[in-house]
Amino acid sequence: MMLSKVLFELVVISVSPISYRTSASAIPIDGVGLEARQLPPVNTWVYQGCYSDPNADYRTLMFSGGRNDTMTLSKCSEVCGANGKKYAFFGTEDGKECWCDYSLRPRGGGVKVDAVKCNSTCAGDATGNTKCGGPNALSVYRNPLIVEPASKPIVVDPATGTTWKYDNCYLGFRGAVRTLDLRVDPAAGVTIETCTSTCASLKYTYAGLEYGHECWCGNTLHMSVTSAQDPSVACKQACDDNTNEICGDIGMLSLYMKA
Ligand SMILES: *[C@@H]1O[C@H](CO)[C@@H](O)[C@H](O)[C@H]1NC(C)=O
Ligand SMILES: *[C@@H]1O[C@H](CO)[C@@H](O)[C@H](O)[C@H]1NC(C)=O
């Protein structure tokens, strides 16, 4: 009884500094003070936290929204929300960079980090009050009006009546070995529906989507399911041709199989 009460208090204490707080009673550590300066929503976007962005090949937010000396949170939010690009996330890095994406990607090792890592003043903010990430760290905002892309548990191809079932997110390749070996990008653009339908018309058992815009078919998985799995990675990338759907990720395959 005693012990569980102590544990409970430890949990509360350790969680408080990193949780989202709006009241002035926030525990007064630097990190919370910094977070508070970023908390006000930018247009409709809501602050999510400071995320590391350690890997230039697998960015935590993938699409560049520019880098310059006039960067502000508001400008980046406009770039990521403009021209029908329905990015759910924007992030600013190193005071000057703007990044956009449909989802946060863990592929490159990006995780939520202490707010002090996002202490670079936005280069275009003359008051110096707003923070635009830090070196290899992103101040991340989310637009709650945008739904994040998703896989489809079941897809029925209207042309052939074939039912496809979503299986899992696998490595698209390892070295020279591809999990599925025939690339057939449908002329109508790559979505879950067009890819599974194309693989159905070619009488294949598997259909896979990769990197937002690649469609792969096959009858055999050229890797064992075990070696094709990487539990640390999720398929998060929106299909270029339907940003409500997930089409794998960088080097990752959203695999569908005939039911
Ligand atoms: C943030 O950076 C400012 C200088 O821009 C510095 O004075 C302050 O101590 C830094 N805060 C933290 C928590 O690192
Ligand atoms: C700087 O980048 C922001 C965001 O991409 C953009 O809105 C702004 O026009 C750019 N400014 C210059 C001078 O290029």
From TrEMBL:
<dbReference type="Pfam" id="PF01822">
    <property type="entry name" value="WSC"/>
</dbReference>
<keyword id="KW-0732">Signal</keyword>
<keyword id="KW-0812">Transmembrane</keyword>
<feature type="signal peptide">
    <location>
        <begin position="1"/>
        <end position="26"/>
    </location>
</feature>
<feature type="domain" description="WSC">
    <location>
        <begin position="44"/>
        <end position="144"/>
    </location>
</feature>
<keyword id="KW-0472">Membrane</keyword>
<keyword id="KW-1133">Transmembrane helix</keyword>
<dbReference type="InterPro" id="IPR051836">
    <property type="entry name" value="Kremen_rcpt"/>
</dbReference>
<dbReference type="InterPro" id="IPR002889">
    <property type="entry name" value="WSC_carb-bd"/>
</dbReference>
<dbReference type="GO" id="GO:0005886">
    <property type="term" value="C:plasma membrane"/>
</dbReference>
<protein>
    <recommendedName>
        <fullName>WSC domain-containing protein</fullName>
    </recommendedName>
</protein>
<feature type="domain" description="WSC">
    <location>
        <begin position="163"/>
        <end position="259"/>
    </location>
</feature>
<keyword id="KW-0325">Glycoprotein</keyword>
